[in-house]
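User: Can you predict the 3D structure for this chain?
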Amino acid sequence: MWNGLKAILLWTYSRTSWQYDVLCVLILAFIFLTPPSWFDNNEGRVRHYLQGQPATTKMILTADQISPQSSKEEIEKRVRELTKSPNVHVTACRPIADENGKTVAFEVDIR
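Assistant: Here is the predicted structure, written as structure tokens:
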């Protein structure tokens, strides 16, 4: 038993052996049969990618492009015009201020 365990741990088998073939099959089975949730991070990017949903991305819009009083619908309309994508959805919008506190741009999260 010790010799078999030692041979597996130190891998003394050649490439043409059946043991090598079994190891290759086990590696491929792990790659293709592992559930995606095992690799899911906090933001769920792997899950979104596998479900065909793009992950959230950020876009910077200057104060010239949208006004501070713009509603979410107006911002979403402007983002769709800029990206030329009718399927874009705005999930969040945060103002970016300069050192004087004046809003100079907006950081927009889109999906």
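The radius of gyration is 26 Å. Residues 54-110 form one domain.
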